[in-house]
Amino acid sequence: MSGPESPSVDPTGTTTGWGARYADALMNAFGPPKTTLVSGHGARVVDADGKEYLDLLGGIAVNTLGHAHPALVRAVSEQAGRLVHVSNFFATPPQVTLAERLLGLLGSEGRVFFANSGTEANEAAFKLTRRTGRTRVVVAEGGFHGRTMGALALTSKEAYRTPFAPLPGEVVFVPYGDADALAAAVDQSVAAVLLEPVQGEAGVVVPPADYLLRARQITHAAGALLWLDEVQTGIGRTGTWFAHQNPALVAGEVVPDIVTLAKGLAGGVPIGACIATGGAGKLFDPGNHGTTFGGNPLAAAAALAVLDTVEGDGLLERSVTTGERLRGALAADDRVTEVRGAGLMVGLTLAAEVAAEAVVAGQDAGFILNATGPDRMRFVPPLVLTDADVDALAAAWSGILDSAWGGGSP
Ligand SMILES: *Cc1c(COP(=O)(O)O)cnc(C)c1O
């Protein structure tokens, strides 16, 4: 390790040595970290060199309340002083209250199973669909549902799947947003249709406004379950509690059989939830599924603090207005050829394949950005993002694109 007289920049770009230690101690599943972060406040994070960034990624749509939000700090601290974990042989008030709150937000009778991540929420739902007695699941191309073997079987990206074949079978892929293709694929052998209301990892892909309505009709007609993966879109991300309730995205009322949640639900404390409405909520018998940590009172208390704060601070409305401001700021440069999304789930396409370069240029300029493809970027910041934060990005945006384009103009 280098002493203070010989600071060497490590692979994370900081001078503190954490990146080199990371490389020697952690599995190389994620590639080299972009920097080493030590603290945050609001929509800002600070790295080990003391450099501050505006965080437009929000832990990948996770940090609903930003960083170090007092309500989340208080809820987690108080709950940790009472009970962190008890096992699922016991009930706890935060777990029961959270399940009731989620069903209330969904507006349906149902039952909740708590897990610790999005992939686990989907794994629970996948197993639940097997309890219908049917085994086929129809999913969309470009969809992302997680990395466990079951969730991976439901995820279309070949680069993720191929190294781990064979995966659980009887998964049928159809083009996303194409209701006719869905209708052609769904018959009485299908247990469930699984869709993201807006595809996140694919780069914020918004389907036609009648797509989920058609999916609901098609599944009803075949006696199949409609399962919506709201792991990324849920909890206010698009401006409504759930994206399938968002009139800007869906032209009518859709009542899904299963909704899976995770990312933003507890503001960064690991949690996942599989919510099933009506009869689907009663498909598991004791012993069919389980988890040691899932639904522990710490994560549930964190989620309750997130729900209270989103409600109390008007963050659904803020997601809509701040999202509009953000989309306007991004679209102001004509090297941005398309801006998509709703609320604070925003995707864009660049006129050249320089998204990765834009991420690097953004980081140099003090902005945490995200590329979802060679020419695609995604913005899923904390819902506490302020107008001033957006204006700071707006002021830097053309300079970031100049650097991404190699210092020149298009
Ligand atoms: C991130 C994501 C998942 C997986 O969640 P993990 O917590 O990473 O397991 C599943 N579905 C969607 C739509 C996601 O965005």
Description:
The chain is α/β, with parallel strands linked by helices. The chain folds into 2 domains: 15-68 and 314-404, Aspartate Aminotransferase, domain 1 (Alpha-Beta Complex); 73-312, Type I PLP-dependent aspartate aminotransferase-like (Major domain) (Aspartate Aminotransferase, domain 2), CATH 3.40.640.10. The chain is built from 13 helices and 15 strands. It has helices at residues 18-25, 58-61, 70-80, 93-106, 118-130, 149-153, 158-161, 179-185, 211-222, 297-312, 315-331, 355-364, 387-404, and strands spanning 37-41, 44-47, 52-55, 110-115, 136-140, 171-174, 190-195, 225-229, 258-261, 272-277, 336-342, 345-350, 367-368, 371-373, 376-379. The strands form 3 sheets. It has a 7-stranded mixed sheet, sandwiched between helices. A 4-stranded mixed sheet has the order 1-2-3-13. Strand 2 (44-47) and strand 3 (52-55) form a beta hairpin. Helix 3 runs antiparallel to helix 10 (297-312), helix 11 packs parallel to helix 13 and helix 12 (355-364) crosses helix 13 (387-404). Pyridoxal-5'-phosphate binds at residues 117-119, 122, 144-146, 196, 200-201, 229, 231-232, 262-263.
Relevant terms:
Aspartate Aminotransferase, domain 1, 4-stranded mixed beta sheet, 17% strand, binds pyridoxal-5'-phosphate, 34% helix, alpha/beta, 7-stranded mixed beta sheet, disordered N terminus, Aspartate Aminotransferase, domain 2, 410 residues, globular
